[in-house]
Amino acid sequence: MIGGAFLSDWGRSFHCREKIADWSQSDNISVQSNLRIIRIAERDGVYHARVAVTGNGFSGEGDMAFTLNGDRIASLIIS
Fold first, then answer.
1. How high is the pLDDT of residue 3?
2. What does residue 25 show for φ and ψ, rounded to 5 degrees?
3. What is the CATH number of the domain that holds 37?
4. For residues 34 and 46, what is the distance between their CA atoms, to the nearest angstrom?
5. Rounded CA gap, 76 and 39, in Å?
6. What is the DSSP letter of 25?
7. Mean pLDDT, 10 residues at a time, over the chain (79 residues)?
8. Neighbours of 61 (CB within 10 A)
Protein backbone atom coordinates (compact mmCIF):
# COMPACT_ATOMS: atom_id res chain seq x y z
CA MET A 1 0.00 0.00 0.00
CA ILE A 2 3.03 2.31 -0.08
CA GLY A 3 2.04 3.69 -3.50
CA GLY A 4 -1.54 4.05 -2.28
CA ALA A 5 -0.72 6.17 0.75
CA PHE A 6 -2.91 9.22 1.40
CA LEU A 7 -2.41 12.41 3.42
CA SER A 8 -4.84 15.25 4.00
CA ASP A 9 -3.40 18.33 5.72
CA TRP A 10 -6.25 20.73 6.48
CA GLY A 11 -7.89 19.91 3.16
CA ARG A 12 -4.73 19.76 1.03
CA SER A 13 -4.55 16.20 -0.33
CA PHE A 14 -1.42 14.27 -1.21
CA HIS A 15 -1.35 10.82 -2.80
CA CYS A 16 1.62 8.46 -3.16
CA ARG A 17 4.88 8.21 -1.30
CA GLU A 18 6.75 10.83 -3.37
CA LYS A 19 4.14 13.60 -2.90
CA ILE A 20 3.89 12.87 0.82
CA ALA A 21 7.71 13.02 1.09
CA ASP A 22 7.66 16.44 -0.64
CA TRP A 23 4.99 17.64 1.84
CA SER A 24 7.06 16.35 4.77
CA GLN A 25 10.14 18.20 3.54
CA SER A 26 8.33 21.53 3.06
CA ASP A 27 5.87 21.45 5.95
CA ASN A 28 7.85 19.59 8.62
CA ILE A 29 11.57 19.16 8.07
CA SER A 30 12.31 22.61 6.64
CA VAL A 31 10.46 24.32 9.51
CA GLN A 32 11.91 22.00 12.16
CA SER A 33 8.53 20.73 13.38
CA ASN A 34 8.46 18.78 16.61
CA LEU A 35 5.34 16.80 17.50
CA ARG A 36 4.47 15.61 20.99
CA ILE A 37 1.56 13.21 21.43
CA ILE A 38 -0.89 14.46 24.06
CA ARG A 39 -3.27 11.52 23.78
CA ILE A 40 -4.11 8.74 21.38
CA ALA A 41 -7.07 6.38 21.12
CA GLU A 42 -8.16 3.73 18.64
CA ARG A 43 -11.77 3.44 17.45
CA ASP A 44 -12.87 0.98 14.78
CA GLY A 45 -9.38 0.67 13.28
CA VAL A 46 -8.75 4.43 13.18
CA TYR A 47 -6.21 5.96 15.53
CA HIS A 48 -7.04 9.46 16.77
CA ALA A 49 -4.15 11.50 18.14
CA ARG A 50 -4.04 14.93 19.71
CA VAL A 51 -0.59 16.47 19.18
CA ALA A 52 1.27 19.58 20.28
CA VAL A 53 3.39 21.06 17.49
CA THR A 54 6.35 23.40 17.92
CA GLY A 55 8.94 24.69 15.47
CA ASN A 56 9.32 27.49 12.95
CA GLY A 57 6.01 26.82 11.20
CA PHE A 58 2.65 26.02 12.75
CA SER A 59 2.76 25.94 16.53
CA GLY A 60 -0.15 24.77 18.63
CA GLU A 61 -2.32 21.72 19.09
CA GLY A 62 -4.07 19.72 16.42
CA ASP A 63 -5.77 16.44 15.69
CA MET A 64 -4.67 13.59 13.47
CA ALA A 65 -6.54 10.48 12.44
CA PHE A 66 -4.66 7.65 10.81
CA THR A 67 -5.09 4.09 9.63
CA LEU A 68 -2.46 1.43 9.28
CA ASN A 69 -1.61 -1.17 6.69
CA GLY A 70 0.57 -3.59 8.62
CA ASP A 71 3.26 -1.50 10.29
CA ARG A 72 2.91 1.47 7.90
CA ILE A 73 0.55 4.43 7.91
CA ALA A 74 -1.92 4.01 5.04
CA SER A 75 -3.79 7.29 5.52
CA LEU A 76 -3.31 10.37 7.70
CA ILE A 77 -5.81 13.18 8.09
CA ILE A 78 -4.64 16.33 9.88
CA SER A 79 -7.32 18.72 11.11
1. 53
2. -65, -45
3. 3.10.450.50
4. 23
5. 16
6. I
7. 78 93 94 96 97 94 95 93
8. 10
Structural domain that includes position 40: 2-78
Output the CA–CA distances (angstroms, integers) from residue 67 to 6, 59, 60, 71, in the order listed: 10, 24, 23, 10
- pLDDT at site 12: 95
Cα angle, residue 60 at apex, residues 49 and 65 outer, rounded to 5°: 20
What is the rounded CA–CA span in Å between residue 55 and residue 75? 24
Q: Read off the pTM.
A: 0.83
Q: For the chain, what is the domain count?
A: 1
* pLDDT of res. 25: 95
Q: What is the pLDDT of residue 34?
A: 96
SS3 content of the chain, % helix, strand, coil (to 5): 20, 55, 25
